[in-house]
TrEMBL record, chain A:
It catalyses: N(2)-formyl-N(1)-(5-phospho-beta-D-ribosyl)glycinamide + L-glutamine + ATP + H2O = 2-formamido-N(1)-(5-O-phospho-beta-D-ribosyl)acetamidine + L-glutamate + ADP + phosphate + H(+). Its EC number is 6.3.5.3. Pathway: Purine metabolism; IMP biosynthesis via de novo pathway; 5-amino-1-(5-phospho-D-ribosyl)imidazole from N(2)-formyl-N(1)-(5-phospho-D-ribosyl)glycinamide: step 1/2. The gene is purS. Transmembrane segments: none annotated. Signal peptide: none annotated. GO terms for molecular function: ATP binding; phosphoribosylformylglycinamidine synthase activity. GO terms for biological process: 'de novo' IMP biosynthetic process. Keywords: ATP-binding, Cytoplasm, Ligase, Nucleotide-binding, Purine biosynthesis. Part of the FGAM synthase complex composed of 1 PurL, 1 PurQ and 2 PurS subunits. The keyword Cytoplasm applies. This is Phosphoribosylformylglycinamidine synthase subunit PurS. Part of the phosphoribosylformylglycinamidine synthase complex involved in the purines biosynthetic pathway. Catalyzes the ATP-dependent conversion of formylglycinamide ribonucleotide (FGAR) and glutamine to yield formylglycinamidine ribonucleotide (FGAM) and glutamate. The FGAM synthase complex is composed of three subunits. PurQ produces an ammonia molecule by converting glutamine to glutamate. PurL transfers the ammonia molecule to FGAR to form FGAM in an ATP-dependent manner. Belongs to the PurS family.
From TrEMBL, chain B:
The gene is purQ. Part of the phosphoribosylformylglycinamidine synthase complex involved in the purines biosynthetic pathway. Catalyzes the ATP-dependent conversion of formylglycinamide ribonucleotide (FGAR) and glutamine to yield formylglycinamidine ribonucleotide (FGAM) and glutamate. The FGAM synthase complex is composed of three subunits. PurQ produces an ammonia molecule by converting glutamine to glutamate. PurL transfers the ammonia molecule to FGAR to form FGAM in an ATP-dependent manner. Signal peptide: none annotated. This is Phosphoribosylformylglycinamidine synthase subunit PurQ. Gene3D superfamilies: 3.40.50.880. It comes from the Bacteria.
Length: 83, 222
């Protein structure tokens, strides 16, 4: 079984209050030297069979229409090597 | 005159929206997310709440509910649709309205009486207000910050499609935008809750009633 991974991040110009809150906690816990934190989402999609070109294209379409909102987010997609 | 109110799994304000429609003089009809039939309603309200737990993004999964396929099609033909709070998020995810709603800039759930200025009183849902009239209705949200790129914001303002603006911006919404409409003026998205301000017993004012009386007139006029 093949695994496709989709990482979704807010576009750089969109404010990320969750990342800001995490950044604030870094400081309180003494993790210094951190300039910024941005929080995203990672989707691990396990296919029934091989990651053929057609099936990866389907997942790319799902990433574009469902997993991310192009108004505020960008995504990257890669196929993970067999475990 | 029938106003349908959709219930998604996780909707909270569907009962209040039905009540507001009834107080305004309409027959309120409960619509179900999994039923693509609109049961002959003349207008639709997508209510507030946390449909599908806001999983993925607020409104992202609801947008693909069977009832939304019909609503998206009918909205394109002129059916009046009002999305309140989570309903506004569903309308943006459906691309019936531009932009998106993200977490409040203050990182807090905001719940308060909110003053808005009605800037477009020509939509199906706002004709009973005077232009630039200030109203006070309930605001309660977590993902209430309206965002869009500069070109979209310029277009919305240039075409008079900003329906309402916050007088005192509570959530970081770009250009103080609280509500917008589509080009035709039949689809309106609003983050604050007019349905919670239709009776003095339970709301801060009755300023929200105008949204529901406006749509009655819009339907009769068409």
């Amino acid at each position: 079984m093949a695994r496709v991974v989709v990482d979704v991040m807010l576009k750089p110009e969109i404010l990320d209050p969750q990342g800001k809150a995490v950044h604030g906690a870094f400081g309180r816990l003494g993790f210094d030297g951190v300039a910024d934190v941005r929080q995203g989402k990672r989707f691990e999609i396990t296919l029934d069979g091989e990651a053929t070109e057609e099936r990866v294209a389907e997942i790319r379409k799902a990433a574009d229409t469902l997993l991310s909102n192009s108004v505020i987010e960008d995504f990257t997609l890669h196929v993970e090597a067999d475990q | 005159m029938k106003v349908g109110v959709v219930t998604f799994p996780g909707s909270l304000d569907d009962a209040d929206a039905r009540r507001a429609a009834a107080v305004a003089g309409a027959e309120a009809v409960a619509l179900w997310h999994a039923d693509a039939d609109l049961h002959g309603v003349d207008a639709v309200v997508l209510p507030g709440g946390f449909s599908y737990g806001d999983y993925l993004r607020a409104g992202a999964i609801s947008r693909f509910a069977p009832v939304m396929e019909t609503i998206i099609k009918k909205a394109g033909e002129g059916l009046p649709v009002l999305g309140i709070c989570n309903g506004f998020q569903v309308l943006c995810e459906s691309h019936l309205l531009p932009g998106a709603l993200i977490k409040n800039s203050l990182r807090k759930f905001v719940c308060r009486d909110q003053v808005l200025r009605i800037e477009n009183n020509t939509t199906a849902w706002t004709s009973d207000y005077d232009a630039n009239h200030e109203i006070t209705i309930v605001l309660k949200n977590q993902d209430g910050s309206f965002v869009a790129d500069e070109a979209t914001l310029d277009r919305l303002e240039g075409e008079g499609r900003v329906v309402a603006r916050y007088v005192d911006n509570p959530n970081g919404s770009y250009r103080d935008i609280a509500g917008i409409t589509n080009e035709r003026g039949n689809v309106v998205g609003l983050m604050p809750h007019p349905e919670h301000a239709v009776e003095t017993l339970t709301g801060p004012t009755t300023d929200g009633l105008g949204f529901f009386t406006s749509v009655l007139k819009a339907v009769v006029a068409s």
